[in-house]
Design brief:
With 349 residues, the protein is of the alpha/beta class. 40% of the residues lie in helices and 15% in strands. Strand 5, helix 7 and strand 6 form a beta-alpha-beta unit. Helix 12 runs parallel beside helix 14. The chain is globular, with a radius of gyration of 21 Å. The two termini are 35 Å apart.
Length: 349
């Protein structure tokens, strides 16, 4: 007897490669990438650079490695990196900006995770006899822990303009930049146009099994390749992975509006539940974060209750649950999830 299907809303990293990806991986043309001889990977890096409007791009195994290298190529040991207070580079990457890049974070809290130039300007440090200077600003678009929020393009443009006027660099953690592009109607290349570097993931929402891309100037990416080697990311016949990445980039980016619509359905369903104070209008992309504090239960307890009813979901802290829609979750799955979440809320209320 087949087991009942689990509806997995933990993250958009849980997607499986599509049949087309598996076929492309099986027949991929490969070579040794450390020698620069993998034709599939070379094509992926060229297409990624074009998609971001940059001179060059580098394939890395993970988004964390991409952000780590992105920070490293723009900073010196002991510099400060300004980031939003709940950003991924600060809270979810094992302090790699300190461990590898030798930098300290200057965290600035921002409503919805969206930094503005006035907020940044007040936190910049110019260096002196008693403090380090800020050399890099990082932006996260979409902002994960704020619920998939999208930067207004005018905010990015102003930050880049003012930063460059002061000799500072800007790196965009664009793990889900194509979600931002879908929601805003602004092409990813335009979002990242004025940033010095941008990282995006192929394995978040785009169904590739492995991989992220770091894009920037040719000179910066040449240095990034050395840092990738230092971190153990020098790969050999990686064209097997690049084949899936090309499909992710060329095709899976085109269907993200479906995930956004499903997230809106989830959000509206959760907002109707008793004891849940949640505004569904805040949901812009594929992430829904709501508060379980009124239920007087931990998110661990709430997650266990959902799992017992066939739904996988994680808490992001002791009081907030996160639901993430993706290719492998249908609209019917989301409708079923709303019912199960309602049952769990009733059980704890």
């Amino acid at each position: 007897m087949a087991e009942a299907k689990l509806i997995d809303l933990r993250s958009d990293t849980v997607t499986r490669p599509t049949p087309q990806m598996r076929a492309a991986m099986a027949s991929a043309e490969v070579g040794d990438d450390v020698y620069g001889e993998d034709p599939s990977l070379n094509r992926l890096e060229q297409r990624a650079a074009e998609a971001m409007g940059k001179e060059a791009a580098l394939f890395v195994p993970t988004g964390t490695m991409g952000n780590t290298i992105g920070i490293k190529i723009h900073t010196g040991h002991g510099d400060e990196v300004l980031c939003e207070a709940h950003s991924h580079v600060l809270d979810w990457e094992h302090s790699m900006m300190a461990w590898f890049a030798g930098c300290v974070a200057r965290a600035v809290a921002a409503p919805g995770g969206i930094l503005t130039w006035p907020a940044i300007a007040g936190a910049l440090r110019q260096g002196g006899p008693n403090n380090a200077h800020t050399s890099l600003i990082t932006l996260e678009d979409t902002h994960n822990m704020a619920g998939g929020t999208v930067y207004p393009q005018a905010a990015i443009d102003e930050i880049c303009e003012e930063a460059h006027r002061r000799g500072l660099k800007v790196h965009i953690d664009g793990a889900r930049i194509f979600n931002a592009a879908t929601a805003s109607g602004v092409p990813a290349s335009r979002i990242a146009r004025d940033a010095d570097s941008v990282m995006f993931c192929l394995s978040k929402g785009l169904c590739a099994p492995v991989g992220s891309m770091l894009a920037g100037t040719g000179e910066a990416i040449a240095r990034a390749r050395i840092h990738r080697k230092r971190l153990g990311g020098g790969m050999r016949q990686a064209g097997v992975l690049a084949a899936a990445g090309l499909i992710a980039l060329e095709q899976m980016t085109l269907r993200l509006a479906e995930d956004h619509a499903n997230a809106k359905l989830l959000a509206e369903g959760v907002a109707r539940l008793p004891c849940i104070d949640f505004d569904p209008s805040h949901v812009q992309t594929n992430i829904v974060i709501f508060d379980t504090l009124p239920l007087s239960v931990t998110t661990g307890q709430f997650s266990d209750a959902l799992k017992d009813r066939g739904i996988l979901a994680n808490g992001v802290d002791h009081r907030r649950m996160r639901l993430v829609t993706h290719h492998d979750v249908t609209r019917a799955d989301c409708e079923a999830a709303v019912e199960v979440i309602g049952e769990s809320v009733s059980a704890f209320a």
